[in-house]
Amino acid sequence: MRSSAFTIMGFGAQQAIRFGSNLILARLLFPEAFGTMALVTVLLIGLTMLSDLGIQPAIQSSKRGDDPAFLNTAWTLNIVRAVVLFLAASALAWPMAWFYQEPILFQLIPVAATSILLLALEPTRAETASRHMALGRVTLMEMSAQVISITVMLILAWITGSIWALVIGNVVAAGARAGLAWVMLPGISNRLHLERASASELVRYGRWIFFSTVAGFIVLQSDKLILGHYLTLEELGLYNIGFFLAGFPLMLGQLLVQRLMIPIYRASPPRDSAENFARLRRIRFMLSLFLIGGVAPLALGGIYIVDFLYDARYATSGAVTTIVSLALLPQMLGLTYDQVALASGDSRGFFALNAARAVMLVILLVILVPMMGLPGAPLAMASTALLSYPLQVRLARRHGAWDPLHDAIMAALAAGLLGLVLLLHGAQLAQVFAL
């Protein structure tokens, strides 16, 4: 509960700061800037996820998670990976500029990619804190880095009115996070070191994590990649702002699950006892009710929120906020199930689930986006979550974690919210998207 409180407070404060800066940047810059930056971000996130070694879950779940040799080996491998990623991003700058017919991407991407190098210098102390659910200083460190980066970003946007403010702000964020982690967090001082046994364990654990994050990248970012090909950069920017607003609750849920559930599952395996299962049921209900409570205002009031906070150029983002909020509801049903596989060392099962999701989502996006335009992406997301639910159940049952009572109650609440939104805003949404 203490770690959850720190995570929720930190996330809330960070998103409030991010949201406030987004409002200011929307007035200092132009919608196309957000669309272009979305493409840069998708590339960097993609490269990062497509080479994930699974270091964070490995440190959380491994018996050697506090061993300096293990931590230093993980840190060294991460630095090598970052250098490769920077070179790959620089090499992909020209093809991205050509494919999206946006020449400035050729300049933006190599500069933005330096953030990968800076983040690799961050010590493993944050992962150690997460392993022991000691997240107070981690939260303070993350907030401090964000304040520094956003201050730089706003000053540059005010002075230049250029997309370079967003790029340099992200680079500063990476440098600030890495530097503050060395100063603010307790733990070992990492050094370059490779121990064969540690490297072997990390590779064995991380090979399925690697494939899983390839699939995870497709699940998280393919909508923007495909929409970027069919929409203008202005339309993509409007979609990105709406997705940013609607994604708050799910982002918080994923952060809580990522930081807390593996240690909880490790300490209280649900199939070991009815007491463990009951404890996890209470945690799931608290988490799900909290998240649905966060989605409801965005689904019901997203149109009004954007009309109030943004100027007329961003009106479409309000409708996007509403439909994306609804599309993310099915993902919350089984939000904690995949983590039980990682806590049990079943990274292969984790990969199989994510791979199936990725295949389903890409197929649906390729079919629905050309047919429906922008609304096709949220519909594809919701359909993927529903179609992949039986696979989640299968994985959860394997580890004794499936809770049909929780899922049935949450599904009923989500269906009720969907009906209410369609009743109140159905005609307006159909008009905005010309359905």
State the assembly state of the protein chains.
single chain
Count the E strands: 0
Q: What is the helix tally?
A: 17
Instruction: Report low-confidence residues grouped into runs of 5 or more.
Output: none
Overall spatial form: globular
Report the sheet-strand fraction: under 5%
- Helical/strand content category: mainly alpha
Count of individual domains? 2
Radius of gyration: 21 Å
From the N-terminal CA to the C-terminal CA, the straight-line distance is: 45 Å
Average pLDDT level: 82
Fraction of residues in helix: over 70%
Major beta-sheet overview:
none
The string of secondary-structure elements, in order, is: HHHHHHHHHHHHHHHHH
Task: Write out key terms for the chains shown.
435 residues, mainly alpha, 2 domains
Task: Describe this structure as you would to a colleague.
Helices cover 82% and strands 0% of the residues. It has 435 residues and is an all-alpha fold. It folds into 2 domains: 1-194, no CATH class; 207-435, no CATH class. The longest helix is centred in the last third of the chain and has 36 residues, at 274-309. The mean pLDDT is 82.
Would you spell out the secondary-structure blueprint of this structure?
Layout lengths: L1 H27 L2 H19 L5 H7 L6 H32 L5 H16 L4 H7 L4 H25 L3 H21 L11 H35 L2 H14 L1 H20 L6 H36 L6 H13 L8 H7 L3 H26 L3 H23 L5 H29 L3
Helix pairs in contact: 1-7, 1-11, 2-4, 2-5, 2-9, 2-10, 3-6, 4-5, 4-9, 5-8, 7-8, 9-15, 10-13, 11-12, 11-14, 12-13, 12-17, 13-16, 13-17, 14-15, 14-16, 15-16
